Amino acid sequence: MAFDPSQRARQTVYQDTVINYFTKEKGQALTVSDDQAFCTQLRLTLSRELGVTEAGAITQFPNPAQMVRCLNELPPDHSSPLLFLERVLNGQDQSLLVKKLRQTFPNIKIIILTTEVPRERLLLFHELGADNVIAKPVSANTLIEKMAFTLKPQSRIGQAIDLARSLLQQKKYAAAQDACAKILALKPGSAAAYLLLGDTYRETGDFTKARTAYETAASSAELYLAPLQRLAELYEATGDKTRLKECLERLDELSPLNVDRKVSLGSVNLDLGNTEEAEEYFSKAMVQMQRDALEGISALSGRIADIYTERDPEKAEKYIRTSLEVKEKFLSRDDIALFNRLGLSLRRQGRWQDAVTEYRRALKLAPDDANLYYNLAMALAEGRAFPQAKAHMLKALEYNPQLPQTGATIAFNCGAVFLQNDDRSRAAAFFRQALEQNPDLRSAQEGLARAAG
């Protein structure tokens, strides 16, 4: 890979931001995570990559309650803590905790940790107060970059916006408006600048100009929720129920998992005399709350299944099936990982036909999922249904041609399926890919020899 001086310079700036936070500002990272691999990586990144070895730089908590107790005990002049919080803990989604933390500790910096990135759920976290999201696994450089951007704006525009926000908090409204004007001169159409401009007008009681600024911000960045949220607050304060309803509907369309907003939509529709629409939104709120509760039960069952996976595949199967059953009405492609885990558990019991049944069931939810086709091919190969295995492996490669590059074992398995069908040239190509990733993989060496024989 070619050396990129600009990238190296940016990385140095990111490193300096994080080092400064922990050393000069006496900052503190708090982690609430059951992922020991991530916690270890965070500690090593700070100590080895950045030389941050200050005592108390990182504190790990087994549960949110202890973390909240720690936040309550911090002195008022303490630097804003940097919190790393798992999206799901012990089967429970942490969105409500994020909301409470933002309300109680407005200056805390919150980074959500997740292994997958469901867009609607992450939008909800941002809306409720999360500052950033890390999708695991994550490299040391990306981890440093995420911390830097969470702690402090890293661009000229970002720093100017930070200054304008600071002036607004100090109630220096004229100066804040001047700062916003300078931002717009640097970046015409900046949604963040128009948002802050709207805030200054709202604070000074000029609701007409505030509304214009918020509407401009909303039109400049369609997926930026904050301007619409401000407009909703403005319409509620001025008693404009019709516009409030329209604004809440736009927000609900962009971020549909917010239960409180559905209740607000029900309430405003009731005020407007739309009783049927009101009841519809109240029903949607109840369904969403039920779905969130079932999600927690499902996640807990899945967690127990993970514990049993290596020790007792039958019990692992039982808990994975429980996880799927409780979500039966709400199953979607986001649940494909559960089906893959169930299939693996069944294959470990020698029940390849049952695994095939579950993979095919999952394909109805995600007909273009390459990993499902790969796992289906492997199950069929285990049952010696070699022609069918080859057909499904070809399908997997059609949907993801880079699949063999994701691991030497996967490349080897692709080669093995084709060798079992006497497709020697194609098998050899996959065995070579496996050896490129792991030159010492004996099974790939032997497979390549057989393919050439």
UniProtKB/TrEMBL annotation:
Keywords: Repeat, TPR repeat. It comes from Desulfovibrio legallii. It comes from the Bacteria. Residues 28-151 form the Response regulatory domain. This is Response regulator. It holds the Pfam family TPR_8. The keyword Repeat applies. PROSITE patterns: RESPONSE_REGULATORY, TPR, TPR_REGION. The keyword Protein biosynthesis does not apply. GO terms for biological process: phosphorelay signal transduction system. TPR repeats lie at residues 191-224, 336-369, 408-441.
